[in-house]
Amino acid sequence: MMTYEKRPKAQIDPEKCVGCGACITACPTQAIKMLPGWVSAVQPSKCIGSGTCAALCHRQAPCLTIRSYVI
Ligand code: SF4
């Protein structure tokens, strides 16, 4: 049995996000979009785990998650 880890993906905590849009502008792959209600959300298929959003957010709303898979 082997395990491998995919690249981390960002997730944004909607309870912390205030919808300032800073992460949307900064994301190198345009992986973040604004949802109704002024909350940002990451599109996992576009996220490369750069950590740009987590580094800049003044609310510490995004976090990077590594998912492990057993194969
Ligand atoms: S930078 Fe933080 S507070 Fe601003 S939109 Fe992105 S996740 Fe929300």
Describe the protein:
With 71 residues, this protein is of the alpha+beta class. It has a single domain (3-70), classed as Alpha-Beta Plaits, CATH 3.30.70. 14% of the residues lie in helices and 31% in strands. It is built from 2 helices and 6 strands, in the order E-E-H-E-E-H-E-E. The chain has helices at 22-26, 52-56; strands at 3-5, 9-12, 32-35, 39-42, 62-65, 68-70. Strands 1-6 form a two-stranded antiparallel sheet. A two-stranded antiparallel ribbon has the order 2-5. A two-stranded antiparallel sheet has the order 3-4. Strand 3 and strand 4 form a beta hairpin. The mean pLDDT is 89. It binds iron/sulfur cluster (SF4). Residues 12, 17-23, 40, 53, 57, 59, 61-62 line the site of iron/sulfur cluster.
How do the strands and helices of this protein lay out in sequence?
Elements: E1 3-5, E2 9-12, H1 22-26, E3 32-35, E4 39-42, H2 52-56, E5 62-65, E6 68-70
Antiparallel strand pairs: 1-6, 2-5, 3-4
The chain binds iron/sulfur cluster.
Iron/sulfur cluster is lined by residues 12, 17-23, 40, 53, 57, 59, 61-62.
In short:
The protein has a single domain, classed as Alpha-Beta Plaits.
Helix percentage: 10-25%
- Strand neighbour order, sheet with most strands: 1-6
Question: So how many helices?
Answer: 2
Strand content: 25-35%
Overall morphology:
globular
Report the bound ligands by name, code or SMILES: iron/sulfur cluster
The parts where pLDDT drops under 50 for at least 5 residues are: none
CATH topological fold name: Alpha-Beta Plaits
Rounded Rg = 13 Å
| Number of domain modules | 1
SSE pattern, N- to C-terminal: EEHEEHEE
End-to-end separation: 6 Å
Helix/strand-derived class?
alpha+beta
CATH class: Alpha Beta
Mean pLDDT: 89
In CATH terms, what is the architecture? 2-Layer Sandwich
Count the strands?
Answer: 6
